[in-house]
Design brief:
It contains 11 helices and 18 strands. The chain is α/β, with parallel strands linked by helices.
Length: 467
């Protein structure tokens, strides 16, 4: 077995691992970064991402943000609200309070952002980017600072010494077992959602066939390795960020194939029935849970239907073509809804439940309060009748983004054991950890969470090594 020695070993080359590596290198530590994928596929789910949620009101930067007055308190409130107040408040506090400094730090390192929303419906502070380009910008900076990156390094075992402290990782590098010895170990290897076996185990039969939006390499072995040496599990293992995506998306690594703007129309299943309140909240607070509801429908499929009044507010990013028709009946036939008669009846009942002058109060950018009356399943906002042809339909399904279960950490990113004691020298960041997301997910928070805790983990590890 080969042996290598460093101050810090980091597992994962997504944004959590990259920020951890960058911050550790700034502290003059020797760093090894282990990436399971080959170089051309590096970056985990980060390479398929497009935005950070940030408290724009707290950022000292000369830029015109999409929402200027979004504060850390707003950010914290959104996390708690969409998770039904089950998110660990201490972890949520760190993410929201440290996000502004993290953003300014990455900006100072040359990361370039888009500051305006690409389409309507974004109600929180965000910046946009190309995930793959960001990785390609940051990795050379790591290498310039002396971080040694090992590709095709499949980390399998956390080393824990006789004194209980973490002592590094064992990994297969190009198939050869290698022992990376270090006094501090940062786990940033992502979630388990790309594993068919684990999706079936934790979500149920059929979920092995769910399309995976991100990296094929996020299969959870590092989480298991940590728990094998005593790490505590945390979070909602039976739930995940399952986004609403184009039904024609690739089976894996499809990236951004969402269809946004569904909140302005209706979503019907093959039985011709609605099953969600499309206008329940802003898109960023519903798309990650509606995907699961869609996947649970017949044939794991549903259909967004809009009319000409709002079609320009729909952002279709998937590979399939939109389908149009001059009547709801014709559209239902064209998208292959099985119960066409029920689909027509559902739309007619919905139209009758809309206010006659709702178009006068319609505002695509905010919760406009336009709601239906008398329906068992209401539409709480943007309730405009579908009555102006042509009508447009988009077949959609649910897509796995990342799982909500992982290892437990403190607000300082220290990994806890099953007695709630800190495992000395072991840290976690990003989707390898649990405790922040339950039931639902506020869009753009995953990347922010990973970047913040990657930086925090490196800073805590530095203090530990100095002691």
């Amino acid at each position: 077995m080969q042996r290598k020695e460093y101050d810090v070993v980091i597992v994962g080359c997504g944004i959590a691992g990259i920020t951890a590596g960058l911050r550790a290198a700034e502290q003059d530590l020797s760093v090894a970064l282990l990436e399971k994928a080959p170089k051309e596929n590096r970056g985990g789910h980060t390479q398929f991402t497009e935005s950070f949620r940030i408290p724009t009101a707290d950022i000292d930067l000369d830029a015109e943000f999409n929402v200027e007055d979004y504060t850390a308190a707003d950010f914290y409130s959104d996390i708690m609200k969409v998770t039904h107040y089950r998110a660990d408040p201490d972890l949520a506090e760190v993410v929201t309070q440290e996000a502004a400094e993290m953003f300014e730090w990455l900006t100072a390192h040359g990361v370039e952002w888009e500051y305006q929303a690409p389409h309507p419906g974004y109600t929180a502070g965000r910046v946009w980017l190309d995930g793959e380009e960001m990785i390609d910008e940051l990795v050379p900076i790591l290498e310039e600072k002396g971080v040694e990156i090992f590709y095709k390094a499949d980390a399998r075992d956390v080393i824990r010494g006789d004194d209980g402290s973490a002592a590094g990782m064992e990994a297969f590098v190009d198939g050869q077992r290698t022992r990376f010895e270090a006094d501090a170990t940062i786990l940033a290897a992502g979630d388990y959602g790309s594993s068919k076996e684990k999706r079936t185990r934790y979500y149920g039969p059929g979920y092995g066939n769910m399309k995976v939006r991100g990296s094929r390499y996020n299969t959870g072995e590092v989480i298991e390795a940590a728990m094998d040496v005593g790490a505590k599990s945390d979070g909602e293992w039976g739930d995940a960020h399952m986004a609403l995506i184009d039904a024609g998306s690739p089976d894996v690594e499809g990236g951004i194939t969402r269809i946004d703007g569904y909140q302005y129309g209706l979503i019907l299943n093959h039985d011709g029935e609605r099953f969600v309140d499309e206008g329940e909240d802003a898109r960023a607070h519903t798309y990650a849970k509606f995907g699961r509801r869609i996947f649970e429908q017949p044939h794991h499929e549903a259909f967004i239907i809009v009319d000409s009044k709002v079609v320009d507010d729909v952002a279709h990013m998937g590979p399939s073509r939109a389908i149009t028709a001059d009547s709801i009946e014709s559209l239902a036939h064209r998208v292959d809804i099985e119960n066409v008669e029920q689909a027509v009846e559902t739309v007619e009942e919905y139209n009758a439940a809309c206010e006659s002058n709702s178009i006068d109060d319609h505002d695509a950018e905010v919760l406009d309060g336009n709601s239906t009356e008398g329906l068992d399943l209401p539409k709480s906002n943007w309730a405009l009748p579908l009555d102006e042809p042509p009508y447009t339909g988009y077949p959609v399904t649910g897509g796995m983004t990342f799982a909500f279960g992982g290892i437990a950490i403190t607000p300082e990113a220290e990994v806890l054991d099953t007695t709630d004691s800190v495992i000395p020298g072991l840290y976690g960041a990003g989707n390898v950890t649990g405790g922040l997301f339950y039931n639902n997910y506020p869009g753009g928070t995953g990347l922010t969470n990973a970047a913040v805790f990657g930086k925090v983990a490196a800073e805590t590890a530095t203090e530990y090594l100095e002691q």
